[in-house]
Amino acid sequence: MELTEAILFTITTAATPLLLAAIGELVVERSGVLNLGVEGMIVMGAVVAFVATELSGSVYLGAFSGVLAGCALALLFAFMTLTLVTNQVATGLALTILGLGVSGMIGENFVGQPGIKMDTITIPVLSSIPLIGKLLFDQDLIFYISIFSVFGVSWFLFRTRAGLKLRAIGDSHGSAHALGITVIRTRYLAVLFGGACAGLAGAQLSLVYTPQWVENMSAGRGWIALALVVFASWRPLRVLAGAYLFGAVTIGQLHAQALGFGIPSQFLSALPYLATIVVLVIISRNKRLTLMNTPASLGQSFVPDR
């Protein structure tokens, strides 16, 4: 029982940054914007959160700083793609490269330093329930935010007028503009939300998952988050399931290495990324389902009539 609890707990910890980054990107893509800079936003959130925590001594101030770092990169991306109408794919890739480079420069003097780990929030009585008590009611604040964000985004997209407008922009920005919906402003807000989620995902890496700073510690999680959005067919609850599935794969390969299976460690380390490729290939075979759920204006620039 204790071993099962420990494994499930580590799976939730590994899945949380994937879930946060993916749910933020889902909102961005639902608005019709394709942001490939998630990886850069995550790693910037990680380094800024760690440095701010080390300098201030407060993990919560550090986490908030990580969110601001993600928003700053998201604002740069939005200005380039929505105001200057640059290519979204090229701009996103450039943003990832920028984030990886700047984060290495900022964190150069903090590599290897022990960090401050965010404390868990223990809910009395409920945390004592066998198996699920520690898993659901003895977690850090970022875990609870990630779960709340899934249901909050689901409610926003499918139960509010603002969510309906955002989905309308993603499906046809021209028609939405003709109906008087402010396309650019809505997309700006969506991109900022995605940046905040990616920044918080990075903060979770350096304050909870491994409380230290290591260069390039995002380790491709931004790309997995992008794949998760497609895997989930742009549905928030499916993102939740997908994130924990990929989290289980990540932790599973670590336990396989620890148990000494006769499989090369390099292959086991590549399993999460191999799983990403396999899932995308399987999804791409069902073209009807993919086209039915994909926002029609995804990746298309919008220039309002003068």
Could you list some keywords that capture this structure?
two-stranded antiparallel ribbon, ABC transporter involved in vitamin B12 uptake, BtuC, 306 residues, mainly alpha, 2 strands
Write down the overall geometry.
Answer: globular
The biggest sheet amounts to: 2 strands, antiparallel
Strand content: under 5%
- Spell out the helices and strands N to C: HHHHEHEHHHHHHHHH
Which structural category fits the helices and strands? mainly alpha
Q: What ranges have pLDDT less than 50 throughout 5 or more consecutive residues?
A: none
Termini separation: 65 Å
CA radius of gyration is: 19 Å
What do you see in this structure?
With 306 residues, this protein is mainly α. The protein has a single domain (2-293), classed as ABC transporter involved in vitamin B12 uptake, BtuC (Orthogonal Bundle). The protein has helices at 2-30, 38-56, 59-83, 88-106, 133-137, 141-159, 161-171, 173-178, 183-209, 221-231, 236-258, 265-269, 271-285, 287-293; strands spanning 120-122, 138-140. A two-stranded antiparallel sheet has the order 1-2. Helix 1 (2-30) crosses helix 6 (141-159) and helix 1 runs antiparallel to helix 9. The chain is globular. The N and C termini lie far apart (65 Å).
